[in-house]
Amino acid sequence: MPSLGRLHLITDTRPGRDPLAVVRAALPVARAELVVQVRVTDDATDREAYDLARRVVALCARHGATCLVNDRLHVALAVGAEGGHVGADDLPVGAARAVLGSAAVLGATARDPGTAAEAVAAGASYLGVGPYRPTTTKDGLPAAIGVAGVRAVAVSVSVPVIAIGGVTAEDVPALRAAGAYGVAVVGALSEAADPARATAELLKALTC
């Protein structure tokens, strides 16, 4: 199974965004510490998801980074991604593991120790935990859990915990102190004036 980078970049495919430009900016800076999670909007077609994921896989391969596909595991298999990530409304973790196979990286979403333990028992390689704080990059999210919520999950499982939800570089020290292995971001990079510099700032905070 590939090693897991500490910085997860989730593609922002909302109107007016250029996810490939952000990926291209971040990869030379973070390299193997970067995991690119290809996430598309619900109304995107499988073909659109495939076309984006195929290009991201190729970019990641040049820099030793990991590419995962969120939600659409058939797309992950089709493009040769290292694995996928499933949320609460996607395939159950055990079923996702069966689809991807034992060697793939499989992330699962959790927000409390109970669901976290269940996900790990079912085969999750790591957990995306949050939302850390309210965010507008995804609709229908539950209430924020804060540092305390991240800590509660991190101390209850043995797999890496990736904090997500409105995370900035300034938040990283507190999240790392709470037991988070890394962080996942959308807006912190997709809305940055200089995504490469923002990547460097996040990475510095994560590796200090």
Polypeptide structure, described:
With 208 residues, this protein is α/β, with parallel strands linked by helices. It has one domain: Alpha-Beta Barrel (TIM Barrel), CATH 3.20.20. It contains nine helices and eight strands. The protein has helices spanning 19-30, 46-63, 73-79, 93-100, 113-122, 146-154, 172-177, 187-190, 195-207; strands at 7-10, 34-38, 66-70, 83-86, 105-110, 126-129, 161-164, 182-185. The chain has an eight-stranded parallel barrel with strand order 1-2-3-4-5-6-7-8, surrounded by seven helices. Helix 3 (73-79) links the parallel strand 3 (66-70) and strand 4. Helix 1 (19-30) packs parallel to helix 2, helix 1 (19-30) crosses helix 9 and helix 2 crosses helix 3. It is globular. The model has no long low-confidence stretch (mean pLDDT 95).
List the helices and strands and how they pair.
Elements: E1 7-10, H1 19-30, E2 34-38, H2 46-63, E3 66-70, H3 73-79, E4 83-86, H4 93-100, E5 105-110, H5 113-122, E6 126-129, H6 146-154, E7 161-164, H7 172-177, E8 182-185, H8 187-190, H9 195-207
Parallel strand pairs: 1-2, 1-8, 2-3, 3-4, 4-5, 5-6, 6-7, 7-8
Helix pairs in contact: 1-2, 1-9, 2-3
This entry's quaternary arrangement is single chain
- Classify the beta-strand content into a percent band: 15-25%
Q: What is the average per-residue confidence, as pLDDT, rounded to a whole number?
A: 95
Named CATH topology: TIM Barrel
Continuous helix count? 9
Sum up the overall morphology in one term.
globular
CATH homologous superfamily placement: Aldolase class I
Level of helix content? 40-55%
Report, as a whole number of angstroms, the end-to-end distance. 25 Å
SSE run: EHEHEHEHEHEHEHEHH
Poorly predicted regions are: none
